[in-house]
Please model this.
Amino acid sequence: MIFKSYTEFGYLYSRYRFEILPPNFEGKKLPKMFNLNTGGSIEKTGETDLTDWEIKSLITQRKVIVPHFFEKDNVWHCFFATYNGLYGKENWKEGQAHYHYISSSFGISKDDFTASMRTGNYKSTPIHIDLFEYRNQDETNN
Model:
């Protein structure tokens, strides 16, 4: 889609990642990398002033948004995922993993929409793209 949108239609592609931490974690020293394992244990690399419980809380409470933009002149399209949407924690078809869609035709500029994503208070639309079998990949590969 990225290559075809450019070669056939002249759209440029950009990807962002916005992470909004809960307010009680501002000013804290986060480890360089951290992961919440399936069993609930925490893996971390780097110095931190957080306990494993606090890191687990941070992972489950943060808001992460990953938008993909296709733009040409003043026309843009955005397909974006939230970690909560991918994990089935949003109110969409009983937890169905999905992408969101918004574009310049919704009456918002790309700059304004991007700025709203930085705070986590972005405009939503009723357009969702289901990702069938997204969380079942590990089960089907075993």
Remarks:
- The chain has a mean pLDDT of 87.
